[in-house]
Amino acid sequence: MSDRLIEALRQTLGDRGVIDAPSDRARYEQGWRYGEGVARCVARPASTAEVAATLRLCAEHGARVVAQGANTGLVAASTPDRSGAMVVLSLERLNRTIELDAAARTVLVDGGVLLSQLNEALLPHGFWFPVDLGADPQIGGMVATNTGGTRLLKYGDVRHNLLGVEVVLGDGTVVSMLNRLRKNNTGLDGKHLFIGTTGVFGVVTRAVLQVAPRPTQRTTALVACRNGEAVLGLLQALERDLGDVLSAFEVMGQKALEAVFRHHDLRRPFAELPAYSALVELSSTLPSSALALDALLEERLGAHAETTDDAIEDAVLGSGEDFWALRHHITESLRSDGDVLAFDISVPRSRLPAFTRDVAALLARDHPNVTLTDYGHWGDGGTHLNLVWPKGAVADRQALVTTLQDAIYPLAVERHGGSYSAEHGVGPHNQRFYDRFADPAVKRLCRALAECCDPGRLLGTVRLD
Ligand SMILES: Cc1cc2nc3c(=O)[nH]c(=O)nc-3n(C[C@H](O)[C@H](O)[C@H](O)COP(=O)(O)OP(=O)(O)OC[C@H]3O[C@@H](n4cnc5c(N)ncnc54)[C@H](O)[C@@H]3O)c2cc1C
């Protein structure tokens, strides 16, 4: 049966601009971790004007739309629902513009440009976009989820590095806020509406980012810590003594590393794995002849260890690549181990050990066959709790997931003053907890904004009101 919306989209975007064959649609319908649906079609506009035309046509036909970047999001927000009625608006062809202003240290990029593509273009100029992570997202997707990443401690998240945006609203109106200035106090800074709001207020088609000078040297250590308090003590000492050059502070729990070594033939840093291994990275634009980072780190770690009464058990300096490989292999190693339920939680840093102990106690009491593995961006108060149980061991998986989420999210939010989604944003995967924890006044504000930006209420798979 012919579909008039698909025909109209094809006339506007051309054959390359529309995908409707089920086998070709499949990769746009499946999320990286969560999210599986059926699309009416995939629209692939290649310019802002085409994004606007696509949204106008969808509005005319009353078709709901989900914007999709690189589809690496982890809360099921980038894929259509199961109705078969939603249009996936893929930004993958809107990826040509990368205009660097080296003197201003800013870059204008299309929303569909991949992070790797941007960094490749910046490399010859000695710059990089320092929001750094183990996936390769698009810039528009990074804006919509306010990506954090492993070097947030030094460089901040996307919000800290975004100067301006161009967006298309739900009715096809193009709003240009392509500010290139670092200082510009002239009223409403509308870009913030579109940062971390998962595309429900508009589609990001271009962005102005500030870029950073690329470090010329890095040094890395893995530090064995007796417990969470020892990790926090180390973090405080490093920030106090080496704060200017500290660029990452990631933490891997014992069980997380055990899983990595079960599935990968990688070099073990310690004979016995400690409760926590802290990955410490220093970096600088100064040459090593001016600042010897290796020696500095070794000396500071040694001095700190002497003051801690064996809370720091060991430390190895070494190749960053080896240590980061351990960190980046955790997720899939856990998946090889069993069934996994992942939590992306933040609490005030000072509460990380107590929060983790509370979760461990809860599991020991109520779910002894569920293993707690934790790792994450402790430098930013972020912890990825991954709960693992043997595949097939649980008769009703969904019931267990619901029980665990209902116990752990309130523990994070209500008892420890944390967030149920530290950096992955809001999506169908955690909508229930947005509904529960978001302030009613904020929801009312979001409703008013959504009615203004997306009068037909057609954008996105989540509701912030
Ligand atoms: C291995 C791995 C490691 C990761 N590590 C981190 C990490 O360290 N820190 C972190 O913060 N995240 C991390 N993530 C999550 C993910 O990479 C980020 O959320 C990423 O920024 C999503 O970008 P994307 O282009 O893939 O967007 P998608 O997944 O395609 O979309 C995500 C959301 O943004 C919306 N969206 C996409 N493009 C646009 C647009 N142009 N305009 C408006 N809305 C849009 C979608 O509708 C959806 O709601 C990781 C993911 C993986 C798979």
What does this 3D model show about the protein?
- The protein has 4 domains: 4-90, Uridine Diphospho-n-acetylenolpyruvylglucosamine Reductase, domain 2, CATH 3.30.43; 98-213, Uridine Diphospho-n-acetylenolpyruvylglucosamine Reductase, domain 3; 217-328, Alpha-Beta Plaits; 338-434, Alpha-Beta Plaits (2-Layer Sandwich), CATH 3.30.70.2740.
- It is α+β, with helices and mostly antiparallel strands and 465 residues long.
- The chain is 35% helix and 22% strand.
- Helix 8 (228-242) packs across helix 10, helix 9 crosses helix 12 and helix 13 packs antiparallel against helix 14.
- The radius of gyration is 23 Å and the shape is globular.
- It has helices at residues 4-13, 22-29, 48-60, 115-122, 139-145, 152-155, 158-161, 228-242, 254-263, 293-306, 320-328, 330-337, 352-366, 397-415, 431-437, 440-453, and strands at 18-19, 39-43, 65-68, 86-90, 98-101, 106-110, 127-128, 162-168, 174-177, 203-210, 212-213, 217-225, 246-253, 276-284, 312-318, 339-346, 371-376, 382-389.
- The strands form 4 sheets. Strands 15-12-14-13-17-18-16 form a 7-stranded antiparallel β-sheet, with helices on both faces. A 5-stranded antiparallel β-sheet has the order 5-6-10-8-9.
- Bound molecules: flavin-adenine dinucleotide.
- Flavin-adenine dinucleotide (FAD) binds at residues 32, 66-74, 77-78, 91, 111, 133-135, 137-138, 140-142, 144-145, 147-150, 198-199, 203-204, 423-424, 460.
- Flavin-adenine dinucleotide binds next to strand 3, helix 5 and strand 10.
